[in-house]
Fold these 2 entries.
Entry 1:
Amino acid sequence: MTAALAGRTVVVTGASSGIGAATARHCAALGARVILLARDAGRLRAVADRIGPEAEPHAVDLADPDALAAVAARIEADHGTPDVLVNNAGGGRWRFAEETDPAEARAMMDVPVLAAFHLTRCFLPGMLERGRGTIVTVTSMAAFTPFPGATAYVMSRKALLGLHEALAADLSGTGVRPVLAYFARVDSLFWANNPGSAERVPGAQALIPRIDPDRAGRAIARGVARGRRTVTAPGMARVVRALAALAPGITSALVRRTGHRRNNVGRTDARP
Ligand SMILES: NC(=O)c1ccc[n+]([C@@H]2O[C@H](COP(=O)([O-])OP(=O)(O)OC[C@H]3O[C@@H](n4cnc5c(N)ncnc54)[C@H](OP(=O)(O)O)[C@@H]3O)[C@@H](O)[C@H]2O)c1
């Protein structure tokens, strides 16, 4: 396992914090050169300083397709096509559709979904030409077990699952490997950055123990190094995903019963 990513270049989005920062740290510990992308230059610099000279920060707003294309071109010019792309950057408050401003819903599609698509598109030709590469899509358990009170968030994390599945179909036999990383609750700054969301975590999610960002990042880095197709932590997340596939009625009933409810405004289960 030591230096399993030696000589590899890994691009991590959302690397100024949480899961992305931890993924970058663990990839660097496995020997990779890591390129860190996020908006906050100061926090990116702090993460890079902690990792050492093998970390290279680039401040960029991935919601801006021109800025994204420019940073991707610079990475290609300086380092060639990266070996690994970790599409992780993203946020979004958990709100019902009627509570969500259209601009906020759009922002949740711009990043993570379209940012992941655009960056993949930038680096894919080089990966295909080389016949090797890894594209990690980081999504939420919400993609498998949609819960109430977080409409646009669930929509965007399902879209990430769709991107991963489409890539898996497209890239079969090319040597470029799509990897799906999914997590339930990770105790990162996500919850402070997206106020009002923590209160809406369905009670049923207590089935899956909470983890810290370091554990999530370690799982991603090790999964990539070991050639895994899916990555998660803790093990119970895998069990719940399997249950959702085998018995979706059970998992959806569980999250609905224990999930957030409106204040019963306009609620009617009765037939007219
Ligand atoms: N925390 C959880 O429980 C959990 C569980 C499953 C999945 N996830 C998913 O994992 C991803 C990372 O979450 P996290 O927990 O690590 O949250 P976090 O600590 O809030 O980190 C989010 C990262 O995304 C970056 N980012 C957001 N918008 C960006 C933009 N427009 N351009 C560039 N970078 C942007 C942020 O950096 P800047 O602010 O510096 O731009 C930050 O580095 C999210 O997509 C989240 O949905 C989280």
Entry 2:
Amino acid sequence: MDLHDYQDVAENYDAYLDVMYREHDSYEGFQDFYLGLAREYGGRGTIDIACGTGAVLLYLAQAGLDVEGTDLSEAMCAVARKKADRMGLHPRIFPGNMTDFRSDRKYSLAIIARSGFMHLLTPEDQRRALLNMRECLTDDGILTLNTFAPHPVFQAQQMQTTPDDYTFRLEYTNRDGYRERIYNAISYDPMTQIMYGNWKFETLDVDGKVIGERIRPLRMRQTYKQEMLYLLELCGWKAVDIFGDYHGSREDTGRYVWVLKKQ
Ligand SMILES: C[S@@+](CC[C@H](N)C(=O)[O-])C[C@H]1O[C@@H](n2cnc3c(N)ncnc32)[C@H](O)[C@@H]1O
């Protein structure tokens, strides 16, 4: 089980992300970026892969676009469906692994937003997913996803961190109305390029006393830009654009937003 497979995480995901990205949002502008791509390329349908609780899926559906969503975690799909119902929207949302899911239609745009692709932990799984997404798209289909390259300074810091060496991240109010403090401890293995560690959720009573604790694991793989370019070529993809953020910057920041077409 990974972080997003837990019901308690899925049901609180939007609430804690809202606080987490209030200070510094490395995905700032992502919804409008994807809306622009969907308007340009999504004429024969958009699939939001690793859609989570529907941040992109429901944004596009609300704009009246033809969009569907899929995610490995049934817990995340369930939250996305509930949100869609509350908004009076009815996009199809189905569980699926990006390495092998199939749909009964082909889409002209596939979006993997906010680092969904980084949840693939091996080059083999990345390759399987990139080949699979080719099958899910029309011949002129576009795929967009983002990656982070290993950053020498951050990775060196993480290599000093053990999985229970927690740092406070934020406090938020959970779905039951309780304050929760989130801590995480993230380590890094330079041989596999995997960031791994735990997220700790501490539930507080009104006096601030800790009355519960849950620990949830998370692993994500970083990919060098050159490695990604070779992987894309191997899997029959070609970069149309490589952005450094969601506002069209082409600065090489080590964080890449890829817009890809079939070779
Ligand atoms: C960081 S969340 C991003 C969710 C959403 N795209 C967003 O912007 O809020 C990553 C999501 O990827 C999903 N995921 C992880 N591995 C996956 C896989 N192999 N196939 C499909 N979804 C996957 C997780 O369940 C989780 O919902």
